Amino acid sequence: MDYRSSEAVAGPRAEDVLPSSVNAAVKVVIVGGFGVGKTTMVGSVSEIRPLTTEETMTQAGVGVDDLAGVERKTETTVAMDFGRISLNDQLVLYLFGTPGQERFWFLWDGLFEGALGAVVLIDTRRLEVSFDVVGRLEERSVPFVVAVNAFPEAPAYPIAELRAAMDLPESVPMIDCDARDRGSSRDALLTLVRYLHSLITVTPETP
């Protein structure tokens, strides 16, 4: 007896299929403190249905997770977010969003494996939550750019002041960003790609 179903097996959606013209894929990581907009950025910019691991926050996090400034947040990423964006016909970025709570940072080692660079999202209402994030990237020698995410009623500071507060060298790009906006999020990723390219471009010596 043939137990095989007569129904055709559903394959990937057309929009999820990687174009045949792609010849390079780069893994990048979206990092930042708790509630800075990492899941939002991956979701807004991904050309495929993003994979998220958001779970409802429970009493288990009371006294453990710092909710200062994000008291209305009800869900949190517990493993990772995943998405994909084609920058052109040949180049694709695979996006991995990290969990923001410090108790889940042990997952970062696996998420950073093979990553060429990172976008650090910051919230000017809670700038201090980004200090340890940047420190971890510097310890791993992972190139990164900093994107200042736009939140309603968040204080606006000149980029130069934020750079000084975070003790960032001038060589590290720092830009304004709205993680809810696809174009703005794409610009942040392009800034990272250009920065990575500048790091590997060798300037010929003058004879």
TrEMBL record:
Keywords: GTP-binding, Hydrolase, Nucleotide-binding. Pfam families: ATP_bind_1. Signal peptide: none annotated. CDD domains: Ras_like_GTPase. Belongs to the GPN-loop GTPase family. This is ATP/GTP-binding protein. It comes from Streptomyces lonegramiae.
